[in-house]
Every structure is written in structure tokens, then in C-alpha cells.
Specification:
Its EC number is 2.5.1.19. The chain has 455 residues and is an alpha/beta fold. It is built from 13 helices and 24 strands. Bound molecules: shikimate-3-phosphate and phosphoenolpyruvate (PEP).
Length: 455
């Protein structure tokens, strides 16, 4: 039984009794999809987004945009990918949206709960925001404070600075410079950058002194804006951005595969001493998942990218521990891989993971310890000392990346069960099927591949 008294749903993770030899088509990037969708809503003309990720987080974004009067149509292509055509709200739809209080369900999606309030600020709307129980604990205050500096008003239903709240953006003013504390999430900065061009005087945004969480995601936001023609100048110290005011034309883009979600599959090559290939790996990317190439090489794998964009990772039998900073959303998978290594690892610069889908540092400390490692959460990360491996039932805390980290451990340790594997639908609804297919290339000794019930 769970803490809430309901039945837990356990997934028997496939165990690889031999080397994998698999090619895995990884679905599109959540972070890029939700950036493109939001920017398409701010454009003057329709946009076409090929290879749009369809998952819980992107469905929540699509529904939120529809509430603002955006029209969305989607088409499934022959290769199974989805093309979304998005028509921004016209004047009539915009004034209809302003005439009522809109409701946005953020689920557990950081990109929705941080980016959409910023969008609301430039539409003049009145909007009520809420989400999952766990989302009500996720930090929001820095981005809401920044919007308040522009004149947006908030009323909080429960606790100041947290969901649920109602936002009123009927009188937004021009500000020279807005400063924002990004130590708890890069998404506060990204949210403001995404709407900067739509503010009457543009925006000069500064990161307040201190740590900047997940810096790669800010680089992604700036690159995405520039790709679509928004002028962004970076301050000399790299901690500030000037966005020129201006219109945004509709655009056509193709979303890259989600390289963070490629991580567990690539790490599976090391865990099984096999080979995993991921096609359509971009030659250049701003995704933090691009770092897998260096991380997995440093940990002992052979990694190569061929001319056709196929990334191939082969496990050599050696998995070395690593000392690594700013792994951001890669951290749960990386931490699981560190458990399988032959030496200790230190992950740094990820203290803010305490405010992710769950307190990931606490969750990783608890769950990874169950399979035999000695794991300690530090101020800014994790210290992982591998031990004698043993099977365990691993909780997923409604966190897609805790679930995929559990699957990775199950591949290497016979008898691991993962709670609620369906939570992976946040960013990859196909995860269980893709994982089982991949694992099937290695004479699996798993007892079952269908979810089973246990008390
Ligand atoms: O902007 C984005 O798309 C994201 C930014 C990061 O958030 P944090 O800065 O809160 O880590 C990352 O962890 C999250 O998965 C996606
Ligand atoms: C932290 C994550 O998500 P979110 O966008 O909800 O912050 C994540 O996907 O690891």
C-alpha cells in the first residue's frame, strides 16, 4: 500500500541476461516542443511544428494555449510523428479570453507552470493556475516576483509564491531591467526571456547574484529565440540578456529527439555491455542531453556519431565513477549509472533538484541505497559509493526520471520492480514499450512485461 492507502502498481523491470543490440527511436524533446509552442502562440502568423512531442507535459501546454484562444490542429505523419499547426489567437479570440477568468492546469510540468504565467502577462488576461499536488510545492516565487515588477497582480489561494494562484495582467508596464533569482530553476529566466520581445520596451533581464540552475536550458532558450529571429544580446558577464521588442513571424521547425530521454537507453549499453544506437542525433544541439556523449565516454563507453546522425554507444565492461557538475535533468539516470560503476562518483551543482517533480536528491538517496549503494545527498548534489548490488522495489514518486532510473537498474539487477512506470508519460508515453523492445534484444530473463498489481 502507498502512504495514501491505495494499491501500488509495480512494473517488473526487464533484466538483460546478455548484451543488448538495439536501435531506439527516441521521441521529440519536451523542452524544445514547449518553447516552440509558446513562441508560436506569440507569433503574428501560423506556425508549423514537425515532430512535436505528444506527452502529458506538451498536452498541458497545448490545452493552456487553447485557453488563450490559440487554434491547434495536429496530423500524424507516415513515420508516426505528429505535426502541429498553431494559429495564434485573433483580436476577437483575445478579447474573448480577456473577458473571463481562464483556467490553466499545469499538471506537474515546470515548463507550463513557469512559462504560461509569463505568456498571460503579455495577453492582459486574468488566469487561475493550479496543478498536481506535487506541483503546489514547486518553487514559483522568483518568476512571479519578476512579473509583479511589470505590474501583474497575484492572489494566492494557499501560500504566497506557490500554486494555486490567480494572476491579473490587465495593467502591465515597461521596466528597464528586471532581476531574477535563478538558483532554484532556470525556468524563471527562460519564462521571462520567451516573452521579452512581446513587452512594449523589450526586456533587460539579469540573473541575481548566486548559482544559476540548469544553465544549458537558458542557452537553449536564447538559441531558440535567435533561431526564430528575436534579437537577444548577452551581457558581457553572461548573466544578463537584452531582448529587443518586436513582432515574431510564424515559423516552421522540426523538433530534435529528446536527448535527455535518450539517456537511460544509452546508459543501458553500459549496463549490459551491449550496443545501443539512437538515430537522428543532432550534430549540434543546445539540449543538456548532448552531454551524454562526453559523460558516457568518460565513464568508459565507446561513443561515436556517424555521418547519418546515428549515435552509437557500446559498453566495454568498465563503468568508471565520475565527478560531474550541472547534470540538471540528466542526474537521476546518471546517478543510477554511478551505482553500477567500479568507483565512487560525485554529482555537483544540482541542489535545486530538491524542487523538481519530487525532492530528487532525497528520492535518489533512498531508492539507490536500496540496491546496495551508499548514497548521500549533499548541499549541492550527491555522493555515490557503489556497493554489492541487490534487487529491490523502487518507488518513482510520480517522477518520470526516477522511474526510468529504476528501469536502468533493473536491466543490470535481476528482480527489480519499479512503481508506476506509467509516470514516464510526462515526457515519454512510449517508454515502457520502447524499453521492453530494447531489452528484448538481449535474451531477457524478466518474468513479465506487463504491469502487475501488488499490495
Ligand atoms: O526549461 C526547461 O525546459 C527545463 C529546465 C530545467 O529546469 P530547472 O532549471 O528547474 O532544473 C530542466 O531540469 C527541466 O527538465 C526542463
Ligand atoms: C525537471 C523536469 O521537468 P520540469 O519541466 O517539470 O521542470 C524534468 O523533466 O526532469
Amino acid at each position: 500500500m502507498s502512504a495514501h492507502g491505495c494499491e501500488l502498481n509495480w512494473w517488473e523491470a526487464p533484466f538483460a541476461s546478455g548484451a543488448l543490440d538495439a536501435t531506439v527511436h527516441v521521441p521529440a524533446s519536451k523542452s524544445l516542443t514547449n518553447r516552440y509552442l509558446l513562441l508560436a502562440a506569440l507569433a503574428d502568423t501560423p506556425s508549423t511544428i514537425h515532430n512535436t512531442l505528444i506527452s502529458r507535459d506538451t498536452e498541458l501546454m497545448l490545452r493552456a494555449l487553447q485557453a488563450f484562444g490559440v487554434q491547434i490542429s495536429r496530423e500524424t505523419q507516415e513515420d508516426g510523428s505528429t505535426t502541429v499547426v498553431l494559429r495564434p489567437a485573433d483580436a476577437q479570440a483575445r478579447s474573448a479570453a480577456r473577458a473571463q477568468t481562464l483556467h490553466v492546469d499545469c499538471g506537474l510540468a515546470g515548463t507550463v507552470m513557469r512559462f504560461v504565467p509569463a505568456l498571460a502577462a503579455v495577453t492582459g488576461a486574468r488566469v487561475h493556475f493550479d496543478g498536481d499536488e506535487a506541483a503546489r510545492a514547486r518553487p514559483m516565487a522568483p518568476v512571479l516576483d519578476a512579473l509583479a515588477e511589470l505590474g501583474v497582480e497575484f492572489s494566492f489561494a494557499d501560500q504566497p509564491g506557490l500554486m494555486p494562484f490567480t494572476l491579473d495582467a490587465s495593467s502591465v508596464s515597461v521596466r528597464d531591467t528586471v532581476s531574477i533569482d535563478a538558483s532554484a530553476s532556470s525556468q524563471f529566466i527562460s519564462a521571462m526571456l520567451l516573452i521579452g520581445h512581446a513587452l512594449p520596451g523589450g526586456l533587460h533581464l539579469r540573473a541575481a547574484p548566486g548559482h544559476i540552475a540548469s544553465p544549458d536550458h537558458i542557452v537553449m532558450t536564447v538559441a531558440t529565440l535567435r533561431e526564430l529571429g528575436v534579437q537577444v544580446a548577452t551581457d558581457a558577464d553572461g548573466r544578463g540578456w537584452k531582448i529587443a521588442p518586436g513582432r515574431l513571424d510564424g515559423f516552421t521547425v522540426t523538433v530534435e529527439p529528446d536527448l535527455s530521454n535518450a539517456g537511460p537507453f544509452l546508459a543501458a549499453a553500459l549496463a549490459s555491455q551491449g550496443t545501443v544506437r539512437v538515430p537522428f542525433w543532432p550534430a549540434q544541439t543546445t539540449q543538456v542531453g548532448g552531454r551524454w556523449v562526453q559523460i558516457l565516454s568518460a565513464m568508459g563507453a565507446h561513443v561515436s556519431l556517424d555521418e547519418d546522425g546515428v549515435l552509437t554507444v557500446t559498453g566495454t565492461g568498465t563503468i568508471r565513477g565520475i565527478d560531474y557538475s550541472d547534470a540538471s535533468e540528466l542526474a537521476p539516470t546518471l546517478a543510477a549509472l554511478c551505482v553500477l560503476a567500479d568507483s565512487p562518483s560525485t554529482l555537483r551543482g544540482i541542489g535545486h533538484l530538491r524542487g523538481h517533480e519530487t525532492d530528487r536528491l532525497a528520492a535518489l538517496e533512498t531508492e539507490l541505497s536500496k540496491v546496495g549503494a551508499s548514497v548521500r545527498a549533499t548541499d549541492d548534489g550527491l555522493q555515490i559509493d557503489p556497493g554489492v548490488l541487490q534487487a529491490a522495489d523502487l518507488h518513482s514518486y510520480e517522477d518520470h526520471r526516477m522511474a526510468t532510473a529504476g528501469a536502468l537498474l533493473g536491466l543490470a539487477i535481476d528482480g527489480v520492480r519499479v512503481e508506476n512506470i506509467a509516470t514516464t508519460a510526462k515526457t515519454m508515453p512510449d517508454f515502457p514499450a520502447l524499453w521492453e523492445q530494447m531489452a528484448g534484444t538481449a535474451n531477457i530473463s524478466s518474468t513479465s512485461s506487463t504491469p502487475s498489481q501488488a499490495g
